Amino acid sequence: MPKTLASDRTVSALREIVGPKGILTGDDMAGYLTDWRARSTGTAECVVMPASTEEVSKVVSYCSRHALPLYVQGGNTSLCGGSVPSKAGGDILLSTRRLNAVREIDSVSNLAVVEAGLVLANLHEIAEKHDRIFPMHLGSEGTAQIGGLLSTNSGGVSAVRYGPMRDLVAGLEVVLPDGSVISRLNGLRKDNRGFDWKHLFIGGEGTLGIVTAAALKLHTKMAARADALVAISSPAQATEVFRAVRDRFDTRLMACELVSGTEVSLTLKHVPGLRFPTPDVPDWMVLIELGDTGGEEALREGLQECLAELFEDGTIADAVVCQNLRESEDLWKWRHSFSEANKKAGHGIVFDPALRVKSVPEFIERAIPAALDMVPFAIPLTVCHLGDGNSHLIVMILKEDLPKINDLEELTHRMFERIHDIVADLGGSFSAEHGIGRKLVEEMVLRQPPAEIALMRAIKQAIDPKGIMSPGVLLG
């Protein structure tokens, strides 16, 4: 889109707010206008990178006065196309990359007050220095930012114990669509001053305002851990493993992941340097992590005893319990490499449903044949956060097989309809932790009760009457 006098004035005005280091134009914007999987690309007048809440407020105020569409981007790791601007032209993209300060660590109250652009892995390092943990772990933690994780209410592998981002937030600072700032970063455990408005912005995907900082809940660092790989013959056995381990260890269960052998084999092929603990990859497996403040040897022995009982009664086929930290880290390293491998292998049609744990096996047993009925040469990959019922199904079409697909977009829509019908039949949600973005807007309109859609649109209209915040995302 050719530049106009108006766009020159916009760039000049925004540069005056954030300084020459805080704005990108032309070819310098390329890395921000396409998502990390190269599936969504938009255009923008400029990428503006404020370095303070005050600068964010001034940028938003300018966009509000001039009715400029404003999109917000964190680490750009979105899987639903919500972190890049539209293709219409005239958009402003605000990156939180420079909003990365740690404002406070309170180890007595177990709180970290950090800005939205702080990378998750950096927060882990900072918490470690204070003998604390921030218990959110996922494959993209080296690039994902706190604001982006909040915007989609991300879950990760430890949600079974600590919950998703919504459960890890004690307060927010937000710039509203008119540029005003609201803040409750005091992190009080009890605070009944009216509506708990932070929950509107967690999962809001930037459609109601811009989160600039958050008070996050830290937790006690685990002195002991025990990890295991458990081989099973079917997903139905996974729920029995989960129930047995949870009933025995209760809150010491940190993570419980159901993984298909197809996903592991694909990852070992495409990501070098990974170690798998057995010569052969099982068809199905469960990864378990326990954490405790007590002795590690006792924890490991307890896990071995639990798994031995499951082996004796025929629930599991085999198990490997990690004997040291290196083996544990190797186990989770290949688990967190799935996204990288899938991107290299081909085009994955990704499903992100949430179900009751007991319904997970039935979903897998019904969804995989339904997907293969539509694309017989696809490879079904399953990665399930078993403890909270979040069941990722990736229908992988290898790069060499993509030419066999006449219309990939049309196939994706038909597959969404068929797989999400199964999710609805099982009483689940078609979106667990990836968000809606632009990818699932039609699903929102088709599958959510009209009264819910009307309520969300009324909230959007009340907070963002000009409709400048991430138009087209979440609610269409």
Structural notes for this entry:
- This protein is of the alpha+beta class and 476 residues long.
- Helix content is 36%, strand content 20%.
- The protein contains 16 helices and 18 strands.
- It has helices at 5-18, 30-33, 53-65, 120-129, 146-151, 159-162, 198-201, 235-249, 261-270, 296-312, 325-335, 338-345, 360-374, 408-425, 441-447, 450-463, and strands spanning 23-24, 46-48, 70-73, 92-95, 102-106, 111-115, 132-133, 169-175, 181-183, 210-217, 219-220, 224-232, 253-260, 284-292, 318-321, 346-351, 379-385, 390-398.
- Strands 15-12-14-13-17-18-16 form a 7-stranded antiparallel β-sheet, with helices on both faces. A 5-stranded antiparallel β-sheet has the order 5-6-10-8-9.
- Strand 5 (102-106) and strand 6 form a beta hairpin.
- Helix 1 (5-18) packs antiparallel against helix 3, helix 8 (235-249) crosses helix 10 (296-312) and helix 9 (261-270) packs across helix 12 (338-345).
